[in-house]
Amino acid sequence: MQVETTGPPVVELVMRSSYSLQLVILSYLVAVLASHVTLSLAERLRPIGGPQAAYQPRYWPWMVGGAFSMGTGIWSMHFIGMLAFHLPVEVAYDLPLTATSWAIAVVVSGFALYRFRRNHTTVSGIAVPGVFMGIGISAMHYTGMAAMRMFPGIDYDPLLFATSVLIAIGASFAALWVAFSLPPRMSNDRGGKSWYKIAAASVMGAAITGMHYTGMAAARFAPNAMCISSGPRLDANWLAITIGMFTLLILGSTLLLSVIDAQLQSTIARSAEALRAANEELEGRVLDRTAQLQLANETLEAEIAARHESQQLLQAIIDNSQAVVYVKDLEGRYLLVNRRFEQIFLLDRGAILGRTDHDVFAKETADAFRDLDVRVAHADQAITEEETAPQADGLHTYISVKAPLRDAAGQINAIFGISTDITERKRLYEELQRAYEDLRQTQQTVMQQERLRALGQMASGIAHDINNALTPAALYLQSLLDRDHSLRPDARNYLTITLRSIEDVAGTIARMREFYRPRPPQLAFLPVDLNKILQQVIDLTHARWSDMPQERGILIRVENDFASPLPMIVGAENEIRDALTNLVLNAADAMPDGGTLTLRSKVLEPTSADPSVARVLVEVSDTGIGMDEAVRNRCLEPFFTTKGERGTGLGLAMVYGMTQRHSAELEIHSAPGAGTQVRLIFPAAIASASAATDTGSPSPKRLRILLVDDDPLVLQSLEHALEKDGHLITVTDGGQNGIDQFGAAQRSGTPFDLVITDLGMPHVDGRTVASGIKSLAPAVPVVLLTGWGYRLQTENQPPQHVDCVLSKPPKLHELRAAIADLASSPRT
In Å, how far are 44, 191, 193 from 270, measured between CA atoms? Predict the structure, then answer.
């Protein structure tokens, strides 16, 4: 029979242990007997007739023999108590340490008897040997514990450790006090003295065992502890019995000698009376024990009935569970299944118990079940995992919780499992995950659109000032290219590129506020040759990918692979050129140590959605540092940049806006260290569409034109350009001056034929100017030339009193066409 140490369910931080009740009782009996022998020896060491008596026997044989008997008894009680203690690992005892603990017990016992022989019943006579005996007994106990040689070592609870030492000292005090308090050796009341000794021995035995088991309770064994002692592995029960018998023999012999010596003077009648009393006592005990056994038998039968009822209740609960419940032994054989198991797998309980998964399921399924069972047994803890099992309607997914079961000795002897069908729940979860991912993508798209709109609103605030600054340069360049035929070809090419760059900047400013807006119907898209634009981009960016890197000793090779012939597309040439320029600049920045920049065009097959329209691919790739997934997911966001202060974060955002306005596709492929590939896919122009050509504007007649603006450079450049076309130009600074000048001309009989005015001017803006002109001469056309022209052009109709809206910087052919059109149109 074993008594397990139990407590509230907690996480096991120490090794579980138990005690053998039989050996615990045996240890107590040995302690009582040793105590009784000790008291008898104390009695034998009392001087007969006092220390002044003429005759004193020789006491040293009793002291030596008593030390051996008493020490052996105390040590035997300790060692039997140690053997009563069971751990879930095999334990052996180090022989030298075990012998040392025995020697300590003998020495302490001899010292106690020596001090007792020399002292009287005084505080100092009890205190000194009492403390020494208590410390010695504690030393004997913990030396015996050390003989177990555990790794990791035994840890002790400080409070219980101190308590065990105090109990040992207290027990030593009690033993000495009882010994000094025994009735005189020659007293005639021998019966009373015997009962006194038995009671005292019982109390002393309880104190000694109390100290031992308190010390055992103080010990803490790590859950992974093992015994590293090389001592022999002997059966604990037989070893305890052997030691107990040997100890009983020694103590009995010692006690017998003491009793014989004490009872030499007893009479036969006294012995007979004592024997009769002992016999009556034994019979009474037998009767009491018989009654106790009968009561215990009745209690056991009631417990068996209650346990059977509990088992029936537990089986009913398991059978009515909607989860699959089962128990298997360590070989995988089913020991228990519930009704749900039978219903799902169409098996009778009798047909499954005793069989394994390989007898019931397909090999692949059975192997998976068995693998999880083995892992649970090896892990010695519960494991939760998904499992799949075939059923009549297909494969089902279960969430299984499997845990080890233990026998009375704490050893794993079975695997318990509960499996819940989550097939439908998992399907719903996957659908929810897909819906969540769709929602997340939608949210990212909306957030990106909002950032782009915010960027457009910011850009509109600076568009007017930038376009005003670009206007003089654009007008003078156009005049030179149109009228100066003496320019060398390279100079004309340089001026053309410069003009194109100015137009691209103006287009960029206009597009910054148009991110993600649908293409306005009135915006004219013309046929575009992508190969031509690619070559222009190479020329425009030559300094960035060639000259500037070579200054640092870096070589970037540019390769082109243009398909020929390449179908035309319909679009805004300057927008596409800007987008490709941004891509080339980004590619050059991505190759700080040099590399290869490739520009490619290609014809792609039509898609199944629109098989009648071919597609044209433009690709810009580099062999640079590349992007990881996080950067690639954010690279199209406005203001997101990895270039630090050198970058604005607008380049790829503008490319993305251009693709949206051109109904094109944008693909970005990149990986760290593998470079980046950006692909733009445009729908090809319909074959029947013809490219619009500039046939030139008809030569306008000579007109009197009033220019109204608040920027002197804009007025000067416009005046020079229009005067070269033969017009009579009058310029005025500011809106109110323009209205006054127009009124004066009307009154003087030299009216103006046309008025060109800016929109944003201090005090009196362009709308007020147009209103004032129309109030004086409704037939005179008014042209609104403004840095916000692109925005106004996309609106459904021009502002009130305005006949035409043009953007800054103006294109001369557009300005001439507008003047010619307005001059030839009849006015009422």
Answer: 21, 10, 14
Which of 803, 798, 793 lies closest to 827, judged by CA? 803
Residue 185 CB contacts under 8 Å (≥ 6 apart), including other chains: 43, 46, 48, 262
Angle (CA) 209-213-215 rounded to 5° is 115
C-beta separation of 334 from 353 below 8 A: yes
How many C-beta neighbours within 10 Å does residue 753 have? 19
| Cβ contacts of 206 within 8 Å, gap of 6 or more | 28, 31
Cα 785 from chain centroid (whole Å): 61
Q: Which helix (H) or strand (E) holds 234?
A: none
Q: What is the mean pLDDT of each successive set of 10 residues along the chain, which is 828 residues long?
A: 46 71 81 74 58 51 70 78 79 80 80 64 65 78 79 84 83 70 53 66 76 81 78 59 66 61 53 78 88 89 84 78 87 87 82 87 88 90 88 85 89 88 84 81 68 63 69 76 76 75 69 49 70 85 82 87 88 86 87 90 80 85 87 75 64 81 87 89 70 46 88 86 88 90 90 89 88 89 80 65 84 85 72
Q: Which amino acid is at 669?
A: H
In this structure, what token pair is assigned to residue 570? 């319909």
Burial class of residue 358 (count of CB atoms within 10 Å of its CB; 0-12, 13-18, 19+): middle
Q: Which amino acid, 148?
A: M
Asked if residue 677 lies in contact with residue 621, where contact means CB atoms within 8 angstroms, the answer is: yes
Q: Which two tokens stand for residue 103?
A: 């020697």
pLDDT in tens, 599-617: 999 888 887 767 777 889 9
The DSSP-derived string for 691-755 is: ------PPPPPP-EEEEEES-HHHHHHHHHHHHHTT-EEEEEESHHHHHHHHHHHHHHT---SEE
| Residues 755, 771: Cα–Cα separation, whole Å | 12
Structural contact between residues 244 and 30, judged by C-beta atoms closer than 8 angstroms: yes
> Cα 346 vs. chain centroid, distance in angstroms?
41
Show Cβ contacts of residue 593 under 8 Å, excluding neighbours closer than 6 positions.
Answer: 554
Q: Residue 109 and residue 601: Cα distance in Å, rounded? A: 106
Give the separation between CA 426 and CA 422, rounded to whole angstroms.
6
CA angle 767, 770, 773 (to 5 degrees): 150
The pLDDT tens digits for 150-173 are 888 888 888 888 888 888 788 777
Alpha-carbon span 278 to 811, nearest angstrom: 136
- Residue for token digits 């229009």? 722
Q: List the structure tokens of 558.
A: 């540019």
Q: What 8-state DSSP symbol labels residue 684?
A: B
Which of these, 61, 65, 49, 305, lies nearest to 187 by C-alpha position? 49
- The whole-angstrom separation of Cα 95 and Cα 182 is 38
Q: Distance (Å, rounded) from C-alpha 679 to C-alpha 581? A: 14
Q: How far apart are CA 365 and CA 397, in angstroms?
A: 12
Q: How many CA atoms lie within 13 A of 637 on its CB side?
A: 15
| 3-class DSSP assignment, residue 556 | strand
Are 64 and 110 in contact by the 8 Å Cβ rule? The answer is yes
Q: Which residue, 384, 449, 461, is CA-closest to 417?
A: 384
Could you tell me whether strands 754-757 and 615-622 are parallel, antiparallel, or unpaired per DSSP bridges? unpaired
User: What span, in angstroms and rounded, lies between the C-alpha atoms of 48 and 127?
Assistant: 25
Using an 8 Å Cβ cutoff, are 588 and 576 in contact?
no
User: 465 vs 473, 680, 711, 786, 824, CA distance in Å?
Assistant: 14, 32, 10, 10, 33
Name the amino acid, one letter, at 703.
L
Cβ atoms 721, 475 nearer than 8 A: yes
Q: How far apart are CA 745 and CA 732, in angstroms?
A: 13
Tokens of 411: 């050893």
Q: Write the DSSP symbol of residue 645.
A: G
Q: At what angle do helices 423-483 and 489-512 cross, to 10 degrees?
A: 140
